[in-house]
Amino acid sequence: MQPVKILEHLPNLPLSKHKGKDLLRIDEFNGEELMELLQLAAHIKQLQKHGQPFQPLQGKTLGMIFDKASTRTRVSFEVGMYQLGGMGMFLSGKELQLGRGEPISDTAKVLSRYVDAVMIRTFSHEYVEELAHHASIPIINGLTDLYHPCQALADMLTIWEHKGKLQGVKLAYIGDGNNVANSLVLAAVLLGLDMRVATPVGYEMDSAIVQKAKEYAAASGGKLLLTHDVVEAVAGADAVYTDVWTSMGFEAENEVRLKAFADYQVNEKLVAHADHDYLFLHCLPAHRGEEVTAGVIDGPRSFIFDQAENRLHAQKAILAALV
After folding, report:
1. What is the pLDDT of residue 11?
2. Are 204 and 190 members of one domain?
3. CA distance 63 to 176
4. Which domain holds residue 31?
5. Has residue 318 been placed in a domain?
6. Rounded Cα–Cα distance for residues 204 and 250 (Å)
7. Any known ligand binding at 196?
């Protein structure tokens, strides 16, 4: 299936509207603003496909702090910044003075004098909030234990491309109520999707985030179903999404999680309950034979590599809008 053509011409989007703003959580943007970012991402993607340069960030530098291992986040941000005319600078958290006890506030103020924005991929969300509080430049959350907003924007772009709409699309998430789930759900209900989440008992989403999501759904016309029944979540779904059962930082729980999630595998039997034209999505990396079977993730309804590519385009839109 070929992606739906989203835009035929340059969207009239005010790039200055969000200049200097942070992106720590996906719900720092309302539904209309998220749709504008998606339009910009789709346009940037089309320009790249046709070899047309889009370089609004010439002379700009993005500092990229990594406390967690990364493939997609590092490559997509570094390449994205280069394609926008700027430069991405890799900064290992272990090698910064932060690793030797320098206060976050001092690091934030120093980096604000050197670079034009910071993307950080780390553990504690409170750590990122403190960095943003003391910085005078945009701070972008590349992932924390609580949120993964850049992934959620790429997910929405992928669904929009292949379904031609977002409002009313039935999206099922199966697995851990983790950072990916938190941001995915918030983005979905802000944009009016019919969101279903199936988690094992004891691995539900954060209750405060669920409450916010319900409020957003009420305002947007979206829906939110929380269940422990995977079939209930997947029934008639336009897209089925899963993630690893053991996220980074939780490796000590791996054996316990394998047992708890045994009935939450996305397999051929489960996706038979979805719409015949469903999309399979996964933020990657994936563990074939655990959260998903090889037959599903490598099958004809899998769009995981479109989804991975869209990290690049979505993040270029974020950078162009904020920096």
Report:
1. 54
2. yes
3. 31
4. 26-147+310-322
5. yes
6. 15
7. no
The answer to whether residue 151 is catalytic is yes
Q: Does residue 314 share a domain with residue 297? A: no
Determine which one of 155, 311, 313, 315 is catalytic. 311
Q: What is the pTM of this model?
A: 0.94
179 marked ligand binding residue:
yes
pLDDT for 16 equals 74
**Within 13 Å, how many C-alpha atoms sit on residue 13's CB side?**
25
The answer to whether residue 148 is catalytic is yes
With cut-offs at 50, 70 and 90, classify the pLDDT of residue 286.
very high
Q: Do 142 and 150 meet the contact criterion of CB atoms below 8 Å apart?
A: yes
Q: Are 277 and 164 in contact (CB under 8 A)?
A: no
**Same-domain pairing of 224 and 80:** no
311 catalytic? Reply is yes
94 and 134 belong to one structural domain: yes
- Considering the domain architecture, whether residues 71 and 185 belong to the same structural domain is answered as no
Q: Are residues 117 and 207 in the same domain?
A: no
Query: Is residue 262 located within the same domain as residue 314?
Result: no
Q: Is 150 within any annotated ligand binding site?
A: yes
Helix residue spans in the chain (DSSP H): 31-49, 72-83, 104-114, 125-134, 149-163, 179-190, 207-220, 230-234, 254-260, 268-271, 294-297, 304-322
Query: Residue 51 is part of a domain; what is its CATH number?
Result: 3.40.50.1370
**Average pLDDT rounded to a whole number, residues 222-249:** 96
Q: Which of 18, 25, 43, 121 is an active site residue?
A: 121
Q: Is 113 annotated as a binding residue?
A: no
Q: Which of 148, 162, 282, 313 is catalytic?
A: 148
Structural domains counted in the chain: 2
Residue 226 exposed, middle or buried by CB count within 10 Å (0-12, 13-18, 19+): middle
Q: Which of 283, 307, 313, 315 is catalytic?
A: 283
